[in-house]
Design a protein that fits this description.
This protein is an all-alpha fold. It has two domains: 71 residues, Orthogonal Bundle (Arc Repressor Mutant, subunit A); 112 residues, Homeodomain-like (Arc Repressor Mutant, subunit A), CATH 1.10.10. It contains eleven helices and no strands. Helix 7 runs antiparallel to helix 8. The protein binds a DNA duplex through helix 1, helix 4 and helix 7. Its main location: nucleus. GO terms for molecular function: transcription cis-regulatory region binding. It is found in: Nucleus. InterPro entries: Homeodomain-like_sf (IPR009057), Myb_dom (IPR017930), Myb_TF_plants (IPR015495), SANT/Myb (IPR001005).
Length: 223
DNA sequence: AAGGTAGGCAACCGCCACACG
DNA sequence: TCGTGTGGCGGTTGCCTACCT
């Protein structure tokens, strides 16, 4: 809703500086200044993106290593895409989330130039709401389906009652068994994703492997 | 015009896993 | 084997802006 412009970011930075001046804590907190960004980038360029505590001290930044790491990974790192998540990316996020849950770093690993933080934010602000709406729709459809199925079962039961009592019992059992499997799709996929995912040899943004598990019949999530 | 509200994003917090001495 | 330091991750918060009343 509120587009984040350069101006707004700079204003935040100024506010952040003010907040830092007022804080009694030892390390800087809040928004990063352009100067801090530059220092951090320079140190990482010469020393590499590791040993964040060392980087923080070498850069002369009064910030903790964690903060430096986060800033680098989510903002300063080269080849970062910002905003404008495409339909393809969105589709992939939804599919991966269905498969992996809130494992944002894994999901981000399949989206070049996207950070886990960005995906997490995008999910929380955009997709989760749409998913809820979709689930409600599906829930309503499912209820209608179940009512319809119950009526059919009743008809079958009545028919079988009149012929064979034993046969009716077996039919009922199998129906219940099938229904119990239909609840949570994720529970059907009994795989260890940590062992399973090896991204090294796969092309990025390739939906085939996701579709293998989730099924192409799903089609697009949001129409 | 002013205040309230919701959306969006950056950054922080707390926990956990791993490496190393 | 244990303790400590560090990095990584997901959840949450805080702030700013645009929109609504």
């Amino acid at each position: 809703m509120a587009p984040v412009t350069k101006d707004s970011i700079n204003r935040r930075k100024v506010k952040g500086v003010e907040a830092m001046k007022n804080t009694k804590r030892e390390v800087n907190r809040g928004a990063w200044t352009a100067e801090e960004d530059q220092k951090l980038a320079e140190v990482i360029e010469t020393h590499g993106a590791k040993r964040w505590k060392t980087i923080a001290s070498k850069a002369g930044l009064n910030r903790c290593g964690k903060s430096c790491r986060l800033r680098w990974l989510n903002y300063l790192r080269p080849n970062i895409k910002r905003g404008n998540i495409s339909e393809q990316e969105e589709d992939l996020i939804v599919r991966l989330h269905k498969l992996l849950g809130n494992r944002w770093s894994l999901i981000a690993g399949r989206l070049p130039g996207r950070t886990d933080n960005e995906i997490k934010n995008y999910w929380n602000s955009h997709l989760s709401k749409r998913m809820n709406q979709k689930e409600k729709q599906n829930g309503a459809n499912l209820t209608r389906q179940m009512i319809s199925t119950d009526h059919q079962k009743d008809r079958v039961q009545t028919k079988e009652d009149s012929s064979s009592e034993e046969g009716a019992t077996s039919t009922s059992t199998s129906t219940t068994s099938a229904a119990s499997k239909g609840g949570d799709q994720n529970s059907d996929i009994n795989i260890d994703v940590d062992d399973f995912f090896d991204f090294s040899n796969e092309g990025l943004l390739n939906l085939e492997w996701v579709s293998k598990f989730l099924g192409q019949d799903d089609g697009r999530w949001f129409n």
